[in-house]
Design brief:
Elements lengths: L22 E4 L20 E5 L7 H13 L3 E6 L16 H21 L4 E6 L1 H9 L1 H14 L4 E4 L2 H11 L2 E4 L5 E3 L5 E5 L5 H11 L1 E3 L5 E3 L2
Parallel strand pairs: 1-2, 2-3, 3-4, 4-5, 5-6
Antiparallel strand pairs: 7-8, 9-10
Helix pairs in contact: 2-4, 3-4, 4-5
Length: 227
């Protein structure tokens, strides 16, 4: 396991981060399977990724999340995934480009319809589960997925955890992107997430390293600057 040593980065330039978006997923319930604990998090975040019905998020849950976001002045985005309620969106699906586009338009469109009623803007899109993982590892899929998001709304910011593919879609499709840092995840030398989490006790040190120096500790023991 990695050992976090802040003194290793203290000699580096200290950055002044202007703003941080603390994001969490929302409407992660469906039908009889409800979890209201998520609402306790809303006081600590600045944006919500609201599930749009394919992997989770029934209409009532979507509506309640939107109403709460409006009440607390939290910006919202679409949390989209494969049509896989039973598997909570964690099972990969081999969809054609047209099928993928239809799935994206359906989900973003559903959230936009709710948002319009409550005078909220859908500002970003964040992928879920198997869709998130496939975006990270498959360049062709990443381009097709981003193109579908652009068709739904060319101003959407696409959140993602793979720096290389985010750069690819930004350059190729001229879409807006934001690299998200999952502080509990381990990253390799290419800033790709590994399928493992770090010990909870080390989270505080990782957060401090990023907030003070914009550094993330990689699996090989080195620090890298994220911008």
């Amino acid at each position: 396991m990695e050992e976090i040593k802040l003194e290793e980065v203290k000699n580096n330039q200290q950055y002044k981060i202007k703003a941080i978006d603390y994001n969490c997923d929302a409407a992660q319930s469906y039908g009889a399977y409800q979890n209201d604990d998520e609402y306790r998090l809303y006081d600590y975040v600045s944006s919500l990724s609201i599930s749009c019905g394919f992997h989770s998020g029934d209409p009532m849950k979507i509506q309640k999340s939107l109403m709460t976001a409006k009440e607390k002045n939290i910006c919202i985005g679409a949390h989209i995934g494969f049509p896989d309620i039973q598997g909570f969106g964690y099972r990969d699906m081999d969809l054609s480009k047209d099928e993928l586009e239809a799935c994206v338009l359906y989900q973003i469109g559903a959230l936009k319809s709710f948002a319009r009623i409550y005078n909220k803007e859908v500002e970003f899109v964040r992928f879920h589960g198997a869709m998130y993982d496939k975006f990270n590892r498959d360049k062709e899929f990443a381009l097709n997925l981003a193109q579908a998001c652009k068709k739904a709304d060319p101003w959407l910011i696409i959140y993602g955890g793979d720096y290389e593919n985010l750069t690819l879609i930004a350059n190729e499709l001229k879409v807006r992107t934001a690299f998200e840092l999952n502080i509990e995840k381990v990253y390799d030398e290419n800033l790709k997430q590994l399928n493992q989490n770090i010990d909870v006790e080390k989270l505080e040190h990782r957060v401090k390293a990023y907030l003070q120096y914009e550094k993330i500790h990689k699996a090989n023991g080195e620090f890298v600057t994220l911008k």
